[in-house]
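Ticket 4471: requesting a sanity check on a complex prediction with pyridoxal-5'-phosphate. Repro inputs:
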Amino acid sequence: MNTLEREASYFFNTYKRIPLEIDHGDGVYLYSKDGTRYLDMFAGLAVNALGYAHPRVLRAIQEQSRKYIHLSNYYLQDPQIKLAELLIKYSGYSKLFFTNSGTEAIEGAIKISRRWGIKNGKNEIISFSNAFHGRTMGALSLMDRPKYRDGFEPFLENCRVVEFNNIDNLRKAVSHKTVAVVLEFIQGEGGICPATPEFVEALASLKKQFGFLVVADEIQSGLGRTGKFFGFQNFNINPDIVVIAKPLGGGLPLGAILGNEIVADVLDAGSHGTTFGGNSVACAAGIAVMEELMERGVMTNAEKVGRYFKSMLLKLQEEFPAIVREVRGYGLMIGIDLHRNADPIVTAMRERKILINGTADTVLRFLPPLIINEQHIDETVSSLQEIFLSYK
Ligand code: PLP
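Returned structure tokens:
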């Protein structure tokens, strides 16, 4: 049996694997077992912000592994404390909790919201159509796409999904019973769909009126991806709870829930916990990620290269209006919505040794390492241009 056949015989049938066997990665490149080099423009789905084999991440992992890999959260752990200090410093939030995945962070945010709501007589959570918050039952309760939910009912009670970017429907949906509104300010899996500034403005004013929490899902858009520390900073709003994950652990599983003063005292000892969340090696890698992002210019690079990338893609849209419907996104979280299915173009790009991702049927999604430069962008755009020309 070849590797694909072995996979099919051993695993539950959940992943559509790319027919490519990777040997190793280095910087912005992945190398297949036959030695071919690929430019990686989706970076392990927004995880590998510093690319592959980043020396500071490798060193941090090595040094911490020698001391201890795991202790349990009964112990104080230096890497957790130092990473927490950096996150609090750069986010401006008051408290945090480390998780081992994005969906675990969403679950924790739901729990914090519910507990805060019980004290305040509120119990309804509102979220939006086309969102993606993870695969656990709480996360699925905040989503509407049948692709993710079908057959997994029943979901959590008192959760209601409202049409994204529809201000009238949002106004009708919120009330004094609303405990939290959970959203991705830039929907990732849904096709790089940003909230409109007017929608966020309406949300901020309803929050003032009804006193609910706003929970920002920054799992994909957070930590410099959009050229700002959080994706919501591209808008005018201050969420109460923020969840992050993907790039935080430098490729190791790590997420976090951040909360402001309003929710700072909601949890008490024993009310929430995790075995693997805040793993010391993951946190040590996270310190390297945070320092590179914030102190060595990686986030600034994402902003600069992202602006260049978007301008080049907008030119491409002008050249190929029959193929490109829209270019959307912020920083290095960019989508090209096509008038056709994205899959053949993803394949054609792979044949040109560039790895991109297709999502929401018609969207080419770009989530490259935040360390890429203009030359990598030029390479990507000219390959897209070649492919689009062949469709003319
Ligand atoms: N929320 C968003 C916006 C995501 O993009 C993802 C993952 O793609 C998740 C939540 C779930 O994170 P995880 O796969 O780490 O559980």
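Notes from triage: The domain at 55-295 is CATH 3.40.640.10 (Aspartate Aminotransferase; domain 2). Leaving this open until the requester confirms.
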